[in-house]
Amino acid sequence: MHAYRSHTCADLNTANVGNDVRLSGWVHRVRDHGGVLFIDLRDHYGITQVICDSDSAAFADLEKVRAEWVIRIEGTVKGRDASLVNPKLPTGEIEVYARAVTVLGEAAELPMPVFGDVDYPEETRLTYRFLDLRREKLHRNMMMRSNVVRSIRNRMWDQGFNEFQTPIITASSPEGARDFLVPSRLHPGKFYALPQAPQQFKQLIMVAGFDRYFQIAPCFRDEDPRADRSPTDFYQLDIEMSFVEQQDVFDAVQPVIQGLFEEFAPTKTVYADWPKIAYRDALAWYGSDKPDLRNPIKMQDVSEHFRGSGFAIFAKLLEQEGTEIRAIPAPTGGSRKFCDRMNAFAQQQGLPGMGYIFWRKAEDGSMEAAGPLAKNIGPERTEAVRQQLGLGEGDAAFFLGGKPDAFEAVAGRARNVIGEELGLTEKDCFRFAWIVDFPMYEKTDDGKIDFSHNPFSMPQGGMEALMGDPLAVHAYQYDLACNGYELISGGIRNHKPEIMFKAFELAGYPNSEVEKRFGGMVKAFKYGAPPHGGCAAGIDRIVMLLADEPNIREVIMFPMNQRAEDMLMNAPSEATNEQLRELSLRVIPKE
């Protein structure tokens, strides 16, 4: 018999009754029933109930064990009485009568329990992450993550992709976030960077003639943390393909992602219809470039109904260039109480409020419009609004005005709240949409032109498009949205040096800077680069959705806290003077 176990804690069943076995694991729970001890023994695979009474030589030793001690049990498998069977456990029809016990590892007093699902402060959970990970939910999440990655690999190989690894120590590259820099000992004063993504390398792989690449790639970005984003590092499914257009990438990716969600969320509906929505339409209809399509509400521009109307606030707004009035339909939301609640929500978001109209039954049995806006703009305009929005008795509409950049995000959040509160948002499903036609450039706060997304994307219209207004240029860039989250980002790449130089020039990068920063890629493009494109899918975020977790830290083995600190390993930490001297660095204290 093996030194530690003949079976795992999930193996035994009624076929093993009468067998002598050896099990090893953690003491999950101890129950003392006065002369009879029941111990739930747990390992990676499951739980087996161990029983011991005063007739056993192991009884005195088992009385001493406590939760989370690691022990080895030797005993005999017995069948449970029918009334004592636990149908929730694979081993629920048997128990092991202990004849001998060996303590393999004692546990100190626990700073947090492993048994049960008590919510503990994040600091405690992350400081003792190894204990946190023993809890059933976290263990289940990590196993799901492992299986998701395995399934991704299998699906990619089945589609003819090849897995290659790209460097972890490389050069700095503008990917929309801050780099983590690594000082060079051999080249004092110079720095490597941890890759924000394998972007340049995967494009070089295409130039090298490898047609379909993928990688489960670690990426490093010095970002502010969010519930759906790690502040330091994350993993992505990185993909690149040669001789493809945008639709070819979509056709290759959808079976992988859809199959993954069908495999790991079998009780939920995974919709196969993935619409393509232009970026500008996503913002106009949903107030977000990652819309949650489970919510059927679609916002509409109703400016014409308020232009020159009796509602002076909106009428004057519309006299300014670039302004509009947008309506959020709210089917079944036609009560003053609900309208006032949503108005208060807008005020909490930093806006003066939201105008509203709701339609109700009048005393004479007809339908009437109510609310301050209805009185100000009159019945004809109110009726025109109702007909445009397709609303009726018992419904409402909310209105926001100004320049879309100023109110769009709040409108999007309001749309989500309205959908949830009115029960319009579909449950237990995943709805996907490709967001396409992203603007190539945006204007920064100081009035300069900069890339709005990935700088390596091909502009729609090529060189000719770059000769006009940069803010009018669209790129072959796309995101995949699912239930309000961005799962994938990608693009068809700019593979022509002359277009690449021009694209960077418009963003303020002279040719010399492009050569300095991206010399390897520019050089490669001069020697025959194929048209190519790809994308990257966030694995952490995918698992978060599949596990139905609200926070990404619940699906990462050893996450950082909100301040980008590793509470378990005490990182970041100060370097020693010797390390700093070796790297030719000096730390300047903060004043």
Report the major sheet: 8 strands, mixed
Radius of gyration: 30 Å
Strand order of the largest sheet: 6-9-10-24-23-22-19-12
Q: What is the general shape?
A: globular
Number of strands: 24
Output the structural class.
alpha+beta
What is the number of helical segments per DSSP (H or I, 4+ residues)?
Answer: 17
* Strand composition percent: 15-25%
Average pLDDT figure: 94
Low-confidence stretches: none
Termini distance?
66 Å
Amount of helix: 25-40%
Explain what you see.
The longest helix has 23 residues, at 136-158. The protein has 17 helices and 24 strands. It is globular. The strands form 6 sheets. Strands 6-9-10-24-23-22-19-12 form an 8-stranded mixed beta sheet, sandwiched between helices. Strands 1-2-3-5-4 form a 5-stranded mixed barrel. The protein starts with 19 loop residues before the first strand and ends in a 9-residue tail after the last helix. It is α+β, with helices and mostly antiparallel strands and 591 residues long.
